[in-house]
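Pasting as-is:
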Amino acid sequence: MNICFKKVALYYFKKYGLSVLPCKGKRPLIDWKRYQHTMVTEEEIDKWGSDYPKADIGLVCGSHSDTVVLEIDNEEAYISLDYDIPDNTPMVVTGSGRPHYHFRYPKKKGLILNNYSEPGQSGEIFSLRVENQIAMIPPSIHPDTKKPYRWKEGLEPWSIQKAELPEDLLELITVKPRNYNTGSNHINTKTFSSKQLDDLFDIISPKWLEGHRQDLTQDIAGYLAKKHYSNEAVVRLITKVAESNGDTELYSDRIPSINITYKKLQEQGVHSIKGWSGRLQTMLSQEEKDRLEDIVSTSNFKSNDNKRVKVTSVSEIKSRVIDKDAMICEPIAVKGQVSIITGKPGVGKSFFTLEAGRCMITNQPFLGKFQTIKGNVVYFNEENSTAIFTKRFNKLGMPDVGTEQFGTIDHQGLKIETLRH
């Protein structure tokens, strides 16, 4: 099949607002770094059509194309994870026969999104291409099978509009900054007001130059961590600076670096963090340093002293709104021990713990062998959304129970102060 790049690319660009690039195999034929944060133009497509008349068509995923692509490599394993196969959004059948589903890019204000892939025992199960990635679209030719990509009949973009990304998949690509409780002597709960954020941006953004960005991230994170600012506050600041400067390594390098700083603070204490002593120190004038110090020293401190929450029942956990900076004191807990299960994704950790809970509520032997003591169960769940957790519980055949018998709570950012019966 001969592809006329210019004709097809202009059709996708004008008709559906897609940012498309000339590719060979699955790689762009041009330096495409700028198109990771800038839409292509009609003039550029016209030029590429002359330079690469038979090129394949690569879609730049993300906000500019208003597209997130779900690529399923192992459909059976995907279904086993309790995700539904979409039937209400455009679908590409690749040259290898695997499906690609196109969804609208989430536009909810304040969301920080990242690409996601779900590993399996024999390869990747599925992936979500969200930002700065290429997805091949028809009539491109698969480099290995030499077969064309094609739209599935009835699910072409001219037959059906892109659907919203399902909530359980949106949960996977939403970045959740971590807030660490770093001990009674160094509590990190300070946040930025809008004015503080804007003032800091004005100082830092002009310094956000290639070759210095990672060092600046580490310096700023360490400096602000010592000033009692939360992990989430630092992520907000760096995200604002990085996005305004077209920094394509925000999710791969900057945010993980911030999280590592706060993890180190938690595990080794404040003296383990250098902060502020490197690149940032040399790039700022004395006037800028003084201004920075004034901004971050502005009182905006949240004390945990008045946020100790005593939880006495499952329904209380489920019904009340608990501040994310609060500490739960005297929670319901198993007396005497806490068990931890580790393992690769997809091996059944959640089902194992859910089955244990089911047996406790129904007073049945665990694994058909170990007698349980009848009791109530609440799951503090961080890895998956509560909806996914509950769905897996139902799959085990869990009967209807009262609110005092079973509950789940997404405890991202929530701290458990003590474990007492």
